[in-house]
Amino acid sequence: MVVLSNQTTYPISMNFSRVVTNVGNDTSSYQAHLENIPDGMKIRVEPSTLTFTQKNQKQSFVVSVEIDKEVPRIIYCFLKWIDQHGHIVSSPIAAANHDAPKSFF
C-alpha cells in the first residue's frame, strides 16, 4: 500500500480496502500487528482479527493511513498478519511526499 501525495496541507488520509484468501487447510485466526510506524504516521486496521474456518474462504479488511505532518520524503512500516500456527503474511505500507525521487513512483 502506498500513499502518494503532493498535498502541502495536513493531515493526509487514505483508506485501502483489501480482500485476502485462506490458502491453508485448517481453521486459522490472524491478528494484525503494525511494526516500525514512524512519527507522523497513524494506521488503523479494521477488523484487527481475521478468522477463517475453511480453505479458500475470503475475508476483507480496511487499512486507514493518516500522515499528520510533513514527513521525510519517504517513510514506511509493515502490517503483519500472524496466526496461531506462526504463519506470517507481511505487507509494506509506504508514504511519499511531493519531494520524493521520481524513481519511487
TrEMBL record:
Identification of the protein by name: Subtilisin-like protease fibronectin type-III domain-containing protein
Organism listed in the record: Quercus lobata
Residue span, Subtilisin-like protease fibronectin type-III domain: 9-94
